Description:
It contains 22 helices and 26 strands. The strands form 8 sheets. A 5-stranded parallel β-sheet has the order 3-2-1-13-14, with helices on both faces. Helix 4 packs across helix 7, helix 12 (380-400) packs across helix 15 (441-462) and helix 13 runs parallel beside helix 17 (475-496).
Amino acid sequence: MPAPRARRILVTSALPYANGHIHLGHLVEYIQTDIFVRFQKLRGHRAVYLCADDTHGTAIMIRARAEGRSERELVASMREAHLADFAGFEVEFDHYGSTDSDANRRLCGEVWRALRARGLVTSRDVRQLFDPVAGVFLADRFVRGGCPKCGASDQYGDSCERCGATYGPADLVDPRSTLSGATPEVRSAEHLFVTIEALHDFLDHWTREAGALDPRVANYLAGHFLGEPLRDWDVSRPAPYFGFEIPDAPGHYWYVWFDAPVGYLAATDEWCAQHGESFDTWWRRAAAADAPAEIHHFIGKDITYFHTLFWPAMLEAAGLALPTKVRIHGFLTVDGQKMSKSRGTFLLARTYLDHLDPAALRYYYASKLSGGIDDIDLNLEEFAAKVNADLVGKVVNLASRTARWLEHTGLAADYPDDGGLFARAAGEGAEIAAAYEACDFARAMRTIMLAADRANAYVDAEQPWRLAKAGTGSAARLRDVATVALNLFRQLAVYLAPVLPRLAAQAGELVGGPIASWEESQAPLVGAAVGPFVPLMQRVEPKQIEAMLAASRESAAATPSGGTAVEADIGPPNTDSGAPLAAEPLAPTCTIDDFSRVDLRVARILSAEEVPEARKLLKLTVGLGGDSTRTVFAGIKGFHDPAALVGRLVVVVANLAPRQMKFGLSEGMVVAASGAGAEGVYLLSPDAGALPGMRLH
Length: 697
């Protein structure tokens, strides 16, 4: 049977804005993308990871003005800082460009001419907000005020993070400039628009049928945008503005959200020029002689609209290839809360690198990422425990306990009988690969760690340290046991290579040479030399975490208030509008005796699965500590990925009378929040340190 043809995969992450430094929230995306690309390369596919700095817009102009330097000087310095941070976390791009490039200017022009030719560009006067103190027109993200649809306060000027409505900044209630705090003036100016409503039928079909989107995302778009006419997209800004002037509209500049996604095309064009490739074979339809290239975009859920409606519309109008997958992830919280400067949890990449091993964060993120759009939490106590237990206590421990006995003899000439351990883990390679392909890295990590558990059980049973003390009569057996252990370690290193490239390189230096292929997990090594063992990974200590948090608090205290535009994208702001309370008023008062009869307990989700015949239910098995478990049917289907729930602490009503349902007996209730303006059902979690079985008082 001929070998399957290698795929050609073009992969991008959202372009980081050149107005601020990389923080741990950003790294959820870039580490996730890097793992996916490294996996594809390890499988023998041609994967190209492209990115660039997003460099245009009012924010860059304002900051450069405040710092007394040109925009391009600012952009150059931030590029250097971004690349250093990415390199520190072993995020490896095949090309990293800039939206302020000749290639991007040219390709913006090509897309623009195609939109013009399709009759999709129109113009009209727009009421626009102008900051009389800063002397600039205000971009959407520099105005905040009340949502004109639901009334939620402190919303950005383009969309409401409470109800999902989209609008113009001049529509805000009681707007204010985030640059100066001044009340903006309304001025009228001509703007250019792209009328994507003309592509409504195409977008409706593409979002539902092309397989590029998670069904939950497709349903969200259908319910919030595609159920009514799509609004024209404002793609120009008047001077003063740092960006590209529109060639056929002097005095108008392409809005940053027009030229930023075109940056994916420009980065490809620049990479192709460097490697003698043809841009057309990657982005032009039917231009490739071989199978068409796959295009995978990794983005955060806050920019879903741009990448699933406006960007595909631009590509379709220009006759360019459409994304194969738009992979959308959630936000990062730290210890269950939004990243906070005052608590020291607004963690910059550089602050982390000054105190902790980047491999630890790569592994922790991988253990949390399930390929879905749920937020993930960096629980710092769990972070230390998981890294210490899994990487140090299981994976590295295999090599550290056995490698030294093979330094002089090397591996055994024939692979010893290991009770089927290597073969079993090799057989799990397809399952692990499928999890990586689906970006369900959490499932991959669980399977790998189960293999690590079996390997360590073997070493514990064989006790090579006792064999070493037994003298020459046990030398052959000692070599066999160490050979098995080191092969199992290297097999794990292959499976973990996309997540832990440095550990994979160290494993290759110890035995077997560089890890270059996934197939190296399928057959054990024999007769190979073994190098001297060097420490591979250190434990995460509480004092390191506290030092990192202290440094972050100190840095925040030294930073002028206001922050940067990039810092504003951490997560949704505090929008306590009162709408949920108004929609569902408080229940009548109860006595403390009434309350005490409800037994609320901390529980851990042990398993979670869909109920196929139920529209809203997931079947959960929760543990209350020890052997005490309950089966609970929870109405959270569609809002939470079952795989991502396993291991999570929740609150349950533990003394609720069992209820016989069509699908089985439900023995309790999981506590969750929902209500007016909410887009989901939000499970409540206890603080770090809470244990299953603890009662809520």
